[in-house]
Amino acid sequence: MPRFSANLSFLFNEVPFLDRFGEAAQSGFRAVEFAYGYDYQAKEIAARVAEHKLEVVLINAPPGDYAAGDRGLASLSGREHEFAASVVTALRYAQELKCPRIHVMAGLLPEGADAEERARRMRTYKRNLRFACQEAAEQKVTVLIEPINPRDMPRYLLNTQAEAHAIREGIGMANLKVQMDLYHAQVVEGDLAAKIRRWLPHIGHFQIAGVPARNEPNVGEVNYEFLFRLIDELKYDGWIGCEYRPAQATAAGLGWLYQLLDWRPTPAS
Q: Which partner for 113 in 42, 80, 109, 219 could form a disulfide, CB atoms 3.0-4.6 Å apart?
């Protein structure tokens, strides 16, 4: 059975961020991931990771000013220095946390962007990804790019698996891989099993959520048990991130995972 990590930006939001590490460990997870922990010192996070004997398997690079609408900087012309600084910050945290992967978000297209503007943004994106990969290679860190569906994130530059893999192939750096979020992929294009078979050697991380509501993965139109068996048969040796919005309390909705793993949490003393 594949290995599952708890995405602490989505799960265990019933408690403050630093307390989510303990909640994840108590619930049976041995790995965690999160988008943005930059409000905390890396050493604070590392202490919680060590205390609860967890691995950090993925973090995001800083996305810019999220409150102002930024969703990544990699394709934003004129903000290359800001992007470079975000990569340096992410790699510093990755080193402290012994995290082998960083997700670099592409950013949004402006309203009404035409084909010429999109092509210009894509050129910036590719230049910045080359820089990120070169910097990350020194730490043996993999850079991930992720197609995101336009329903949840309108105007995001990257939407399809084929486009992401074409970018990866064009850049041609060994430490650039695609983060395949099966929720986003199903919303945009479906045909998940065929895409997993085609691109698995170049997929650096999976994420899951139920479709269409983005709740627990055992509810909705995707047969995740089938996909987990397929991923296992294909000998994927990475992690699957649980990046979904719990319908109620996080722990109450983990029955799907315990059934798969034939495991139950030990009650807290």
A: 109
Report whether 133 contacts 167 (CB < 8 A).
no
Instruction: List the chain residues with pLDDT less than 50.
Output: 269
Residues annotated as catalytic are 146, 243
Q: With CA atoms as reference, report the closest residue to 122 among 96, 99, 145, 91.
A: 145
Question: pLDDT digit string (tens) for 155-181?
Answer: 999 999 999 999 999 999 999 999 999
Rounded Cα distance, 179 and 164, in Å? 9
d(CA 33, CA 50): 14
Tokens 């170049």 belong to residue: 202
Number of C-beta neighbours around residue 16 at 10 A:
8
pLDDT tens by residue, 177-201: 999 999 999 999 999 999 999 999 9
The closest alpha carbon to 234, from 246, 245, 226, 223, belongs to 226
Residue found under tokens 């793993």: 261
User: Residue 164: how many CB atoms within 10 A of its CB?
Assistant: 24
The pLDDT, as a whole number, for residue 269 is 46
Domains of the chain: 3-261 (3.20.20.150)
